[in-house]
């Protein structure tokens, strides 16, 4: 049975991004089915029953369904042969999971003012507000602590934490918000990976105006 990734219709979800990059980095052949969230397709009874959480991304592999991007990433890493998606060192692996969990649960003000549509469709036309700037400052502080000068990756070799951190930094890069040059260069270098370019350069439908 084919491996299927269910993603958002607009291809702008950071969570679908993470699951997509995981499959690409592993070299897993997979199909993509899009779910139109604006039309409520995620609420269809058959999708709710299979995915449990009725969200995207969801992965279907040999009849097994799994949703939530970090769970998908860890499953893909263990279920398929290929390069590791998480560091081999125990503490580095724990730190990578910490970074990924933090990105998914914090920086809400920044995510509201710099949604991923500003990366994949059009940049923001207003400077960051006070709350979003506080979140941006926190992001810069954490990223500065993680990104080591002269090292292309956070933990010696590429991990999904690199991809997730690069994406959140691109919330600032895309709208030309202030970002220290070393972090900007690091995020752009990660952004050049083929697995990431494959997601970034996908054809997208026009963004509907609110």
Descriptive tags:
alpha+beta; 2 domains; 4 strands; four-stranded mixed β-sheet; Glutaredoxin; 50% helix; 210 residues; Glutathione S-transferase Yfyf (Class Pi), Chain A, domain 2
Structure overview:
- With about 210 residues, this protein is α+β, with helices and mostly antiparallel strands.
- It has two domains: about 5-85, Glutaredoxin; about 90-195, Glutathione S-transferase Yfyf (Class Pi), Chain A, domain 2.
- Helices cover about 50% and strands about 10% of the residues.
- The chain has helices at about 15-25, 45-50, 70-80, 90-105, 110-115, 115-120, 130-145, 160-175, 180-190, 195-200; strands at about 5-10, 30-35, 60, 65.
- Strands 2-1-3-4 form a four-stranded mixed beta sheet, covered by helices on one side.
- Helix 1 links the parallel strand 1 and strand 2.
- The N and C termini lie far apart (about 40 Å).
- The mean pLDDT is about 95.
């Amino acid at each position: 049975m084919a491996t299927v990734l269910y993603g958002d219709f607009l291809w702008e979800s950071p969570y679908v991004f993470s699951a997509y990059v995981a499959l690409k980095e592993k070299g897993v052949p997979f199909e993509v089915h899009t779910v139109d969230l604006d039309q409520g397709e995620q609420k269809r009874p058959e999708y709710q029953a299979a995915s449990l959480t009725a969200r995207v991304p969801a992965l279907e592999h040999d009849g097994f369904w799994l949703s939530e991007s970090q769970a998908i990433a860890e499953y893909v890493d263990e279920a398929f042969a290929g390069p590791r998606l998480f560091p081999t060192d125990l503490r580095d692996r724990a730190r990578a999971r910490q970074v990924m969990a933090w990105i998914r649960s914090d920086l809400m003000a920044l995510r509201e003012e710099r949604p991923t549509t500003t990366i994949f469709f059009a940049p923001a036309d207003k400077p960051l507000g006070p709350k979003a700037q506080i979140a941006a400052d926190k992001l810069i502080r954490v990223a500065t602590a993680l990104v080591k000068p002269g090292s292309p990756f956070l933990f010696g070799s590429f991990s999904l934490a690199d991809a997730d951190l690069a994406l959140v930094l691109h919330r600032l890069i895309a709208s030309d918000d202030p970002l220290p040059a070393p972090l900007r260069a690091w995020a752009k270098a990660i952004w050049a990976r083929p697995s990431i370019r494959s997601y970034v350069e996908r054809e997208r439908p026009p963004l509907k105006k609110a």
